[in-house]
Design a protein that fits this description.
With 385 residues, the chain is of the alpha+beta class. The chain contains eleven helices and 19 strands. The strands form four sheets. Strands 3, 4, 5, 6, 7 and 8 form a six-stranded antiparallel beta sheet that branches.
Length: 385
């Protein structure tokens, strides 16, 4: 009887071992049919004992894949950030049309700028007014980022706020809407010099820049300064339209694509024949650099300021099925003379370094032109001094 029991147990153990080996082989074969990342995700999903967020894991993996390319210009955009990215490229955002900053005591958000024709302006909000509560919650009880986030939302939705206007406190409800941000602004300086500040080369750049130039010319400007400091670049199509308006004859821009295809953009005959200068700094990227380089190489403008970043690759953005996107470098840009700026940038003919305090004031548009040493140097260059 004992021998029969032992024999039975031996059969059972053999069968169990065969099942384990078979399962292991099947799982091995199944895993082998997937990529390494898919295998890892399956193993984590099946075996990891801790809490896990599948979206967060996939975002981290996607970001790491792009990072592993070793290209500082390629990037990954999570699904929850892609909408904001698209709005930014359109030079617009959804909100009530105010720029705010936290007051020193942290009790409110002070309005420092109001967008023309936005919801805030239409109800009479002005710089200096202070938002003390949003959706029934005191700003003092929230972090600055959370308070600002509560003001944002989807177009067509309503935000309720408590606003302090001088000594009066009022309750205001505003509908959020798409707000267009100015791309090109302008002003007249002394000596009939027009100053055009170009924020970026995204949507509406060419239209607004050309309108700014023509407005200054109608006011009597006979010299121009273009300010592309802190300009992150943008669309080649917008850049070429502006260059074509300013330059005549010759190459404006040269592109080389990943498939080996080359493309050159050429200027039409008409041009703007007046003295010009371009302001750049260490935050001038991509299209901003090529804008300065083209005007310089066509010998119609001098370059003033600080050495630029040196970005010579361009990216295409590819949407993913989950709502995320990836921007990949797919080609190279060259100046009209065929020079790559990648890792090199532009060294101004008139170098003017500024200290950190002055740099910050320029960045936040809190420095008047007459107090700006780089604008002063550009004026002197245009006047031949």
């Amino acid at each position: 009887m004992k021998n029969k029991v032992l024999l039975f147990l031996s059969y059972v153990l053999t069968a169990l071992l065969a099942c384990v080996i078979t399962t292991w082989l099947i799982l091995g074969n199944q895993l082998g049919s997937f990529s390494k990342l898919e295998q890892l995700e399956m193993l984590i999903d099946k075996n990891f004992i801790g809490e896990k967020d599948k979206t967060e894991i996939q975002d981290a993996a996607a970001d790491a894949m792009v990072e592993a390319l070793g290209d500082r210009w390629s990037y990954y955009i999570p699904a929850d950030e892609y909408g904001a990215y698209q709005q930014q490229m359109k030079n617009e955002y959804v909100g009530i049309g105010v720029t705010v900053q936290v007051t020193e005591d942290g009790a409110s958000l002070e309005i420092v700028e109001v967008a023309p024709d936005g919801p805030a302006e239409l109800v009479g909000l002005v710089p200096g007014d202070c938002i003390v509560a949003v959706e029934g919650e005191l700003v003092a009880d929230l972090t600055a980022d959370l308070a600002k986030e509560k003001i944002k939302g989807e177009a067509g939705t309503v935000v309720d706020m408590t606003v302090k206007k001088g000594m009066e406190t009022v309750e205001i409800s505003l509908s959020r809407t798409a707000i267009k941000t100015p791309v090109a602004t302008y002003q007249m300086l002394e000596h009939n010099i027009g100053l055009v500040t170009i924020e970026n080369f995204d949507s509406r750049c060419a239209e607004e820049t050309i309108d700014a130039i023509e407005s200054l010319l109608s006011q009597g400007a006979d010299k121009l300064i273009f300010d592309v400091r802190n300009n992150p670049g943008g669309y080649k199509s917008e850049l070429v339209k502006v260059l074509d308006y300013l330059l005549a004859d010759g190459v404006l821009f040269h592109s080389l694509y990943v498939n080996g295809e080359e493309e050159k953009e050429y200027a039409k005959e008409d041009c703007l024949d007046i003295p010009m200068a371009v302001l750049v700094n260490k935050n001038s990227y991509s299209a901003a650099e090529f804008f300065a380089a083209a005007l310089s190489e066509h010998e119609v403008a001098c370059v003033v300021g600080e050495k630029t970043v040196g970005k010579g690759y361009f990216q295409n953005v590819y949407p993913m099925s989950d709502g995320s996107a990836v921007g990949l470098s797919v080609g190279k840009y060259f100046t009209p003379n065929g020079i790559s700026l990648e890792g090199v940038g532009i060294t101004p003919e008139y170098p003017v370094e500024v200290d950190e305090e002055t740099f910050a004031k320029i960045l936040y548009n809190s420095l008047q032109p007459e107090d700006d040493p780089q604008i002063f140097a550009a004026v002197k260059a245009l006047l031949g001094q």
